[in-house]
Design brief:
mainly alpha; 14 helices; globular
Length: 306
């Protein structure tokens, strides 16, 4: 297998919507408030592009470090049910995969320069912990994924931090009622995007639970067991719908439209399959479905009332 194809597979394309959607959600807030208050709020497309590219680079770096470090820790075995890992399979060396991860972090840092120029030191305060956690998710003295904290990491960095950070890049912050409402929307959308991204992690961990239990990887699915981990995955899927009333309160022009039936149908089918699909490679299809549902959910919010 050639190097480019190997690295592409190691980026885990099915998971990348988690980072893209969080930035998209932050932009949605700006779009909605710009439509309601055109003289007070302005959307900057160039900053949005730099933000999403930087976020994708950090996520890819996290996935590459995960691939390399899991192989170093012997956490990827012959029993693996998930997609092929390029380090454990011998397609690339652990050092080469780590260097690729560092290259993507360097790219993320370079792409953040226009964001720093626009909003100053708070972007550095957001960016440095995000890049450190890309490595610490699997590496370092306290690897989050091995301690059952992977879902918390995703909720914070692929939800709250990414959505609120994107909003800050676009509009900064002022202590007034308008900005309080906008950041209230960022909190709600951050939780919703974060929970639906946690669903991706939980499906992955349910699938790998038996293997992880034998290699010392104490994910939340390992700690909870199969039945309760599936219950948690269902909660991640349902909770964003329960909080839609709060979304409507903080975000202008959010309501029923013709996209919601598609999101609900995919979500309902995913709900059904989560309770019945065995914890093996057949769950890989659910990862793609969960990514699709995440996109449809935010698309429905984006399109507003019809």
């Amino acid at each position: 297998m050639n190097t480019i194809k190997s690295i592409f597979l190691a980026t885990r394309p099915k998971t990348l919507p988690a980072g893209i959607v969080a930035v998209w959600a932050g932009c949605v807030i700006v779009w909605k408030y710009q439509a309601a208050f055109p003289n007070l709020v302005q959307f900057d497309l160039s900053l949005a592009i730099y933000t999403v590219l930087s976020a994708i680079c950090i996520q890819i770096a996290c996935n590459l470090f995960n691939d390399s470090l899991d192989a170093d820790k012997k956490a990827d075995t012959a029993k693996r049910q998930g997609p092929r890992r390029i380090t454990a399979s011998g397609d690339m060396s652990s050092r080469a995969v780590k260097l690729a991860g560092c290259a993507f972090l360097a790219a993320a840092a370079a792409l953040s320069i226009p964001l720093i120029q626009a909003q100053g030191w708070p972007i550095i305060a957001i960016g440095i912990p995000s890049m450190l956690c890309a490595y610490c998710y699997t590496g370092g003295p306290y690897p989050l994924a091995y301690k059952g904290l992977g879902e918390l990491f995703v909720l914070l960095f692929f939800g709250l931090v990414a959505v609120a950070g994107t909003l800050y890049v676009q509009v900064g912050f002022e202590n007034n009622a308008l900005y309080h409402m906008m950041y209230g929307a960022a909190f709600i959308l951050g939780v919703q995007c974060g929970l639906l991204s946690c669903l991706l992690i939980e499906i992955n961990n349910i699938r790998d639970r038996k293997e992880d239990a034998t290699t010392g990887k104490r994910t939340l699915a390992v700690r909870l067991g199969d039945k309760r981990a599936r219950g948690l995955a269902l909660a991640f899927l349902i909770a964003p719908y329960i909080t839609l009333k709060q979304t409507h309160f903080f975000l202008p022009n959010v309501g029923w439209n013709y996209y919601w039936p598609f999101a609900i149908l995919v979500g309902g089918y995913l709900l059904f399959k989560l309770t019945r699909t065995p914890a093996d490679k057949r769950m890989n299809v659910l990862l793609g479905m969960a990514s699709l549902h995440l996109i449809l959910f935010l698309l429905s919010i984006t399109m507003g009332c019809q």
